[in-house]
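[step 3/7] inverse_fold.run input=structure_tokens len=459
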């Protein structure tokens, strides 16, 4: 597609990438909370953990048998660490995972900083935060009481998540038995999956893997309903992204019957996001639209995982299939090299999960060329954020850029799994893709009235 005359010349991108800071992730057993694309560690970066809890980054490396962040990064990229990374048995792994959470939530003391008479003990209710003594626990309660209940779920989920990694919890999948306009949110999705889902969850609850998990976890096994709720939260966490893409396709009125299928770009895809994504993870998007002519989902970001690039397919798009592929680089470079040259189809929609450009001037500067490009090429775009506060801040920025906002609000397919702010556990937990913003082109566009009518008809 030829550049439009009113396209602005975008400035050379700054060296910083339009993605959040690379989190400390490893493929091998690690605290999964650290490997998740959450605001806790992605946005702040590994060493900024120390701002809240001095020495925490070192504690993590030590517990994972690693010498440096460089070594950590090496493992992330598929290399073999110099020191003896790895664990003798599941008990050791879970113990070490838990140890990375072991600091006093009130005075921030680490185990190494305690006098001999003191030990860190967890809050009996949530088993998620630790205190160096009754005095710290008492003083902390006014703020901890607001999050204790939610953190209790977090502590269960971070163990249960292991079943997804080992493949002992396989998400229920298959064609939707209900039409897409009936399945508006998680409640209706769970109703639709009904019996099949119950059977899946029962099988996982009764499995040896579940027994082994809790035998290794170093804490009592919770009641079945607690475990079942946790599995459901993990499920919403895994399926939130494909279903949010589907939400965008519907709300933005994208033509699913387009010859040759649809191309969707996921911009600013992080290392973790691609590291943990496998072919098949977006199949739910296909089931959402029976009879579709193919979806090609391309993850673009400077930190796209090497393994993901190698595993992705480049065969022609078949009707009824969802194809994933990755491209490592800045989005506007990708656009000039791949899209403008016609190597890759023009996107029908672009999505950015948690771009975070509201969070700092540096991130905003990094995202600006991409945002202007999406606006000026009038690409239907959806972004997600972690909270209502982030929603307000992001909307303000987009309005200032004269972006035409189609809609925004709470995401009916947000993740229901609470995310703890790792180094600051008494901060209100957040939820991935809690809210969304959809925009299309510029608010200065002359045909906006017609467009609005079309959107109202389409949704
Ligand atoms: Zn303390
Ligand atoms: Zn608690």
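[step 3/7] decode complete -> sequence:
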């Amino acid at each position: 597609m030829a550049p439009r005359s009113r396209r602005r010349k975008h400035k050379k991108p700054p060296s910083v990438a339009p993605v959040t800071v690379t989190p400390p992730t490893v493929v091998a057993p690690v605290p999964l909370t650290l490997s998740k694309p959450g605001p806790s560690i992605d946005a702040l970066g590994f060493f900024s953990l120390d701002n809240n809890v001095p020495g925490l980054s070192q504690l993590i490396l030590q517990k994972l048998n690693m010498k440096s962040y460089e070594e950590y990064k090496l493992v992330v990229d598929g290399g073999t660490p110099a020191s003896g990374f790895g664990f003798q048995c599941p008990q050791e792994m879970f113990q070490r995972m838990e140890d990375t959470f072991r600091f006093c939530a009130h005075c921030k003391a680490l185990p190494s900083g305690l006098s001999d008479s003191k030990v860190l003990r967890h809050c009996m209710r949530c088993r998620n935060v630790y205190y160096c003594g009754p005095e710290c626990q008492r003083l902390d309660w006014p703020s901890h009481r607001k999050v204790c209940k939610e953190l209790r779920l977090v502590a269960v989920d971070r163990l249960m998540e292991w079943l997804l990694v080992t493949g002992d919890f396989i998400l229920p999948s298959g064609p939707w038995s209900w039409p897409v306009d009936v399945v508006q949110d998680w409640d209706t999705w769970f109703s639709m999956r009904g019996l099949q889902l119950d059977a899946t969850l029962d099988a996982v609850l009764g499995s040896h893997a579940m027994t082994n998990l809790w035998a290794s976890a170093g804490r009592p096994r919770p009641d079945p309903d607690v475990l079942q709720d946790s599995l459901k939260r993990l499920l919403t966490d895994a399926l939130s992204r494909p279903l949010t893409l589907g939400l965008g396709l519907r709300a933005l009125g994208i033509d699913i019957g387009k010859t040759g299928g649809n191309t969707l770009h996921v911009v600013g895809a992080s290392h973790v996001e691609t590291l943990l994504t496998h072919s098949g993870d977006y199949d739910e998007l296909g089931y959402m639209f029976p009879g579709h002519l193919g979806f090609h989902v391309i993850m673009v970001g400077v930190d796209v995982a090497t393994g993901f690039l190698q595993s992705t397919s480049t065969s022609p798009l078949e009707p009824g299939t969802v194809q994933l592929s990755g491209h490592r680089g800045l989005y506007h470079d990708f656009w000039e090299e791949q899209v403008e040259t016609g190597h890759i189809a023009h996107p029908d929609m672009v999505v950015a999960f948690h771009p975070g450009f509201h969070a700092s001037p540096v991130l905003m500067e990094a995202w600006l060329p991409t945002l202007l490009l999406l606006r000026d090429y009038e690409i239907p775009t959806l972004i997600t954020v972690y909270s209502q506060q982030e929603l307000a801040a992001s909307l303000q920025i987009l309005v200032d850029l004269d972006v035409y906002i189609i809609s925004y609000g709470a995401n009916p397919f947000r993740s229901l799994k609470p995310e703890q702010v790792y180094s600051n556990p008494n901060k209100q937990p957040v939820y991935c893709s809690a809210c969304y913003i959809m925009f299309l082109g510029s608010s200065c566009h002359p045909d906006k009235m017609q467009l609005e009518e079309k959107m109202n008809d389409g949704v």
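[step 4/7] annotate
Residues 69 and 345 are 38 Å apart (CA to CA).
Residues 41-159 form one domain.
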